[in-house]
Amino acid sequence: MILTADFHIHSLFSMAASKNTTPELLTNSCRIKGLDVLGSGDAFHPVWRRMWENFSENSKDILIVPSAEVEGNGKVHHLILMEDFSQAAEISEKLQPFSSNIDRAGRPNVGLNGYEIAEIVHECGAYIGPAHAFTPWTGMYGRFSSINDCYSDEKPDFLELGLSADTSYGDRISELDDIPFLSNSDAHSSLLHKIGREFNRIKSVSGRPEDILRSVLKGDIVLNAGFFPEEGKYNRTACSRCYKHYSLTEAEELSWKCPLDGGRIKTGVSDRAFSMSDRKEKSKRPPYLHIMPLGEIIKEVMGLSSPCTKKCSDLYYELISAFGNEIAILIDTPVEKISEICNPVGIAIGKFREEKVILHPGGGGMYGSFEI
Q1: Is the pTM of this model over 0.70?
Q2: Domain edges within the chain
Q3: Angle, helices 114-123/85-95, rounded to nearest 10 degrees
Q4: Which of 3.20.20.140, 3.30.360.10, 3.30.750.24, 3.40.50.2000 would CATH assign to domain 2-228?
Q5: pLDDT at 372 > cutoff 90
Q6: Is the separation of the CB atoms in 52 and 41 below 8 Å?
Q7: Which candidate, 241, 31, 234, places its Cα nearest to that of 132?
């Protein structure tokens, strides 16, 4: 079977997360979005863990894979995937001596290096990889020059690309050849233009968490999907205050200080990935589909201020009613059928599938944008 999965979200216990992020709202959004598998997010938080366990009878059509993100030494973020919530409780207990907030924060701080965290995770039978690996502030490649520098002998089980990168950013780095790539939303909300904004399609023998995770480890991923990298917040090298873009040469000449406002210039994901590349040919990876959430596409083509406006929402649900779910509309439904309901949206989705959109890259912490 082919399952559509988003393994990385956050709960209402995470910083900057919506207080309306609950199991009920998240699973309702999954059904509309077209997700079969959802990472629980924040599985080390005891209250959030109990909320999922108490809700399990109501989410049988959506498979919940326990997941958590932690911040280790050097502010590097790690994504952890588990087979059940008992593993989450066990790992949390083993990390507790090294964390002052593992019982209180959705994404806790852990005073251990990457390899020390990975060792504990692997001892408990769970899986770990760098979260948004290329992001300058908290990604593995933002802090280290190689996987070995971060994880030593505890090799990661997967790598999360992040919103500012796609497969092309990692497939020319030879040390990543046998590491599967994941594309996840890192959503802090159950809103439909946040959850599942990046996702994976995975071939699995069953809908059990252990089989899905084994499929990930074997590389049985048939599709990664998500933003054009240029739309991410950290794609280009830019000032973190005014967001002005700079080339690497300019940034070095300026000693990484913006002359306009004194802000710190941060290396963009595209420049960092290019500097890590050690060959020209691509590795053999599943295709990466560049797409945006349907609500964002409707907002753009209709000239609206937000995907949450009534006009945008009305058209969104008209399309959902006609075609079943958002992901089916974005990647499977014939453009001609979409155009029968709204021609501008049909044209826009066709342009995305053909990669014929105009991109305005983001950087320094500001999202990029697109136009048709």
Answers
A1: yes
A2: 2-228, 230-266, 294-360
A3: 140
A4: 3.20.20.140
A5: no
A6: no
A7: 234
